[in-house]
Predict the structure.
Amino acid sequence: MLENYIQTLFPNLANIKIILGVTCQMSFIQRMAEGAKQLSERARGFGEFASDRAKDITKKSSELLELTRMKHELRKLEKEMENNLAGIGALYYQQQSGQADVGEELQRLLESTRELDMEMKELEEQISAMQPKPLICSDCGKEIPQGGRFCTYCGKQVTN
Ligand SMILES: [Zn+2]
């Protein structure tokens, strides 16, 4: 028996059974603790992964929200531009046909329409800069439709 053998080697160890039991228990507890540590490390790793993904998604959705807001704003400006141009037309007609002296009014409207035009161009640039860039075929230089795996013009496979 192992216990007897150990007792002959270490005669002053009184209750070898208890000691062996404690040792066994210790290593069991140690294994449990290590297992728990690994689990928590894995959980932490997954947590980091999940929060990175969440950050990514949040960033994407806030960009999308911003893009939608800007497009909405541009449509409002386009409507305003339509009204301005119609107004300019009406004032110009009145002036030309001698119905009323609207020169000053016409100048003001022309001025604000020019500003509106610049505002719209700026917004259009911002929108196109935020738009995902289309893929360009490395062979023929044509645009490849989103999600396409082959060039629709020359058939070259898209490599990234
Ligand atoms: Zn091509």
About this structure: Residues 137, 139-140, 142, 151, 153-154, 156 surround zinc ion (CB under 6 Å).
